[in-house]
Please model this.
Amino acid sequence: MILIAAGCGGSSSGADASGGGDAGIDGAATADARVPDAAAPDAEPCPPEFVPASPDFHDQFVSDAEAPLYVGARVFVGTDGTGDLLIAAYGVPAAPIGVDFDPVFETAPAHLELWWSVNGDLIPQMQFATIAGTLNLSQACPTGVAGTLTGGVFQQVTPGGSDLAGARVDGGCMVTVPSLTFVIGDTCP
Model:
């Protein structure tokens, strides 16, 4: 289960009925509410702070379609009523376990993404990937992933291969998440 703080901040934990385990948050997530650069007049405005303090999780899945790259996802309802996803992309056995590393999506063996306002075909209106922070995975296997992100900064990105992050959007929107603990999928053997 994943819980992310937004708005006024705080801390919470809980269990997910779908078997996702416990998770917790600290601090307040923020979204950049500015309009992207005037050089891109057709660009969409940045979303509001869409990550709730206690997300209402509906589902989770882990895909091995690109093995040895695995993708785990948790669905939650944003504060603006949109359906959103937290994505963990990780390599097996490349992702280090129990070691702090920088989760920059272009170079790291694992990174996180936030997909805002996802439609029924799992296409987000806006996509964000980690560009800063410290990620420490407690497990990563073909059936699940878990860990903690601290000081997380997500930047707007274009979709890339398998719809994961492609390239940073120049002048794009940003989301910060001070602390995030997550469990997606099953416990690794």
Summary: DSSP finds no helices and eleven strands in the chain. The chain has one domain: 13-185. The two ends are 18 Å apart (CA to CA). Residues 82 and 170 are 25 Å apart (CA to CA).
